[in-house]
Amino acid sequence: MAAAAERRLLRPLDRRRDRTRGGPAGVRGQAAVVIYGDYLCPYCARLSPVLARLREVLGERLVYAYRQFPNERVHPGAEFMSRAAEAAWRQGKFWEMHDALFERSPNLSEAIVFEIAEKIGLDLNRFRRDLDDPKLKTRIEEDVADGGRNHVTATPTIFVDGVRYDGAWDFYSMLEALDRPVGARVKRTARAFANLPSSAGLVLLLAAAAALALANSPAAGLYAQFVGAQIAIGPLRGAMSLSVGEWASEGLLAIFFLIIGLEIRREMSGGSLSHPKAADAPVIAALGGILAPAAIYLALNPGPTAAGWAAPSDTGIAFSLGVLAVFGARASASLKVFIAAYAVADDVFAILILAIFYPHNLHAEWLIASAAAVVLMFTLNRWRVYVGWPYLAATVALWTSLHLAGIEGALSGVVLAAFLPTRPTPSASPLLAQAASALAELEQAEHALRRAGADKRRLEQEPIWDWASRNLSAAAGRLLSPAERVERTMAPWSTYLALPLFAFTAAGVPLGAANLGAPHADRVLWGVMIGLAVGKPLGIVAATWAAVKSRIAIGPADVSPVAFVGAACLCGIGDPLSILMAEQAFTGTGYAAIAKLGILLGSACAAVLGAAALAFSPPPATAVKPQPAGKPVTAEA
Questions:
Q1: Sign of the dihedral defined by the CA atoms of residues 264, 265, 270, 273, in that order
Q2: pLDDT digits (tens, 9 = 90+) for 438-455
Q3: How far apart are CA 308 and CA 520, in angstroms?
């Protein structure tokens, strides 16, 4: 959610400090626009007529603030132009100077500025004195530093109602963003919620709470019917039929594992897991997180219930990351990546436990088909196939073969993440030339149509339109590799559809099904509970500490001990794979229901302990550093 946080404006429009124009406060449906601009930036100058037209159409429903962001390095003299506008403000003529500067931009000089000042009626002697006032320079530097804190790296950068606007700059696109038709309002509201750092965790936890409430209410029968409803895919006689819950845990969760895999891959190539020893740490932690709860369970269940030792061994990473997201400000990026990598290793170990200790559900013949699908993905990657559908076909084949083999099909998402192709970062110059050439030709064609008086002919009907659109699409598409494009497209679906539906179908455990009066029932219950709530974090912390101290591995950077313990506690939240292990261990007995209750209660304790630790942990030391004043980067850089 870091990218979402970067889209929010830290200091909203302030009529007392900002240079604003537009309707008074309190106008119903009013849109607030904040622009960081540079008077010598040609793109800011081209945006200026669009803003003027928007003010004409929207009237008092638009309030607009301009913040100085001069780039003296790329545009020598830009800082002087900003001082000129601020000096004009002292005489009540800011917007007159502002508009005149953009009308003459980029062909501006000090002589032209004084010409404009005289034309708009400024006191030139006072104007000269104000230009040399250090307070003006300080104010401009404050605006530039403020832009740096808001992750402004180019001009113009536009914020609409406190959220960065990354849409098109043409009049109709911006009008739709500001005028707020129903579709735009829904999109804006959804985006504002998604920009909340804790939104992903809140949605997941609400879905889980709703499931638990329904499963233990008079509507429990309807809930069970929904989760157990069969959905078949394929030909009538050979269709694969799974319940809604199974499709959610194996099918939709593959999208989540795809996003997790892509993030881990990115960190391994140039991030916090790039060092081999840093990548080893989550694997060692996962091993400790399995052995410690198993040892605790076996210590409490040495007799006939010992078979349930695997029940507290798996982590429900979707729930763990969901709670972690709620406390996102307390967890560094490296800690989140560490937990994600731990989860993948933990799931692999859990599947090996199922295959080795509960082999009656494993169909080894389908593993050959799974291996073939992996080889196909590897071949596509080596051949540099950048088209998406071959990878999709191979992933479907892998998911199907893993499912038929008795292995969690969701892991196909991790495999796809490993083989989706990346591309070297392109040079900006040729792409800029390609895009600028296409847009310049479109602009010339538009002017030609106007000169010819061809009112009935539309620009998009001209041959140049198709050529230009293809070149613009190619230039824009080259900025992202297939892996990056898939991550950007699928991440919202994973966060706001796949994970909540998984939580809704997985968390609905009926609390009254367990017979706590059965022999050894208390041992099973406490073994699973303590294994998850205490054993998991104890094993993760101890294994990681030992690996770091012995220099076998490197722990995550910028993580306080309290935050690491809190994240380790969250790894004690179980998931459907834990429930499956309980069912496999206690097939045909009443202990399975007791173990499930233990998983639920142990997960709740782990969540509370983890949340408490994170709440009291200090925030990570890393912070966004504002750029030095006068050193922004414009869009043309």
A1: positive
A2: 888 888 888 888 787 765
A3: 12
